[in-house]
């Protein structure tokens, strides 16, 4: 029963108000797309300006060892909403599978607790339309993957199926523009449609206020939703999934000027991140202006490591090995913050291993809602970290991406370093995986494989990993 229903029942039956617990917290989950661990000031970047994220880090809890559930976007997003590893619900990589009706999402669970729910930005957990060609898979050819946010517990939506340019998100230059991005369009009339759309909760295309910075376009929808909920004294659950800085990156004129000394690609990359950072600041200021900031839990993270090769791409994985699509730390260790003034003291920093799958059990526990028992939940509640500053995770974190596997506990990481192994005509791998072992406390850069020195640790962790992998029972992503 929700807090609001309990209060109403007390008034009806007893004629008096009840002595209820404090109002349930509002929850805002913010995520970037392909933002590297080293792309923010609070993680040491001295070039990209992220003053609002840096202020959020100073005001709350900075998680130095926070992981995306996968090294690519769609699987990580599903882990946020289900608390489950992607191989349990069938979204194994980007542009595959969809959120099925059998899954329970945070939005569905919180709506039962009286929350109003909104999704704003990139969805990428199913298509948005059955009728017209849209984005990567939308339209008649992929009807089986139709699963928009409103079918998964969200009352209000302003959502795209997948990526869009980070400035003028519905447009691109004529011809064959670079996949990395381009300089902002000075003549929009000469541009052509990018090929995707924003959709609302009615399944209708949004056509107004789509020019300029994409992060601002998204926040222009999230802020009114939050404002309305706060004015109605209704708890809100808001998911803001920025497209920034997924390719193609485009910075508007004001933000491009901040990085005028750089070449086009890094200038647009850096500029779009700073533009997004301003919208995080706008969100935080909105919560303060509405007097709901103290009782609002806001999280920030990325969905995986930075895109491209380190030598040619501006995104930074910090000191860590690997990038997007890798299970080495650079592919899955991402920047992360939690701000909740009522419960989290300013200036906290933790090396506790956490993962995007932890959001669901954390939120359910803080609300006193039982975690579903009819399905495996891979995440672990972060309330002990929030309330008592524990330092050790109760259970390891498992990863799988194609044939690559990893198993991470508080100290060690076991990993086989192949994404896709060669197979015979029957689909059987030609060679068994070779596992490496790293001591992440002593060697977070994963520079020294110590598997030969600790065969007992390798054996134990491999047994645990393979048992966990078997329990996931991968779902055919075509269903």
Automatic annotation (TrEMBL):
Record's signal peptide: 1-22
One GO molecular function term of this record is: metal ion binding
Keyword annotations: Calcium, Hydrolase, Metal-binding, Signal
So what EC number does this one have?
3.1.6.1
In this protein, which residues make up the domain named Sulfatase N-terminal? 25-369
Pfam families to which the protein is assigned, alphabetical? Sulfatase
What does the sequence similarity comment in the record state about its family? Belongs to the sulfatase family.
**Entry-linked PANTHER family:** ARYLSULFATASE FAMILY MEMBER, ENDO-4-O-SULFATASE
Q: What is this protein called?
A: Arylsulfatase
- Gene that this sequence comes from: atsA_17
